[in-house]
Amino acid sequence: MGNVHGRMTGLTLFTPIRPQWVWFLRIGLPLTRHLPFMARHILQFNFIKFVRWTIVPGLDDEQLNYEYLYFESNFDGPWQHYIDAFAYVIPLDIRVTWGRGPGFPAPPPAEPLKAWIAMNSMDGGTYYCAHADESTRMVNNALAVKERFDALDPSLPPDEFKAAWERFLTDAQAHL
Question: Is residue 144 over pLDDT 60?
Fold first, then answer.
């Protein structure tokens, strides 16, 4: 189930969308990039490195019963924990995104959703993670420390630099 690389797991789903729901996703998915209150739901999880959805239309020469929703994500830890968080923290978002697909078990609880995901998931053909051995939180903390360190002014007089250095150490403690 999914790809695992260091601390990271990749999850890829390819799920059918009922025809009457395609228009809603075609409008709704792009809006999440531009409306902060919509994106905030998925971004509240600090273990997600990457997530995207794409609607895959049928091909001209193929007779498909549905268009498909392609979903991929990279996150810290096992996929089961990822699904638990989604099922219990943002179940409405999950139902809105996938809930009009055939056989979708609306969460909560998480177990039927996990079975549905296991049935619809596939291994990705390629998987890349720049910091596979570090969690998303570790990378974000390192970036926060670097930002604070870069703000130090080495041209300050010694007494002012000492005070700035002590402020840096105090501020950086939360990220170490």
Answer: yes
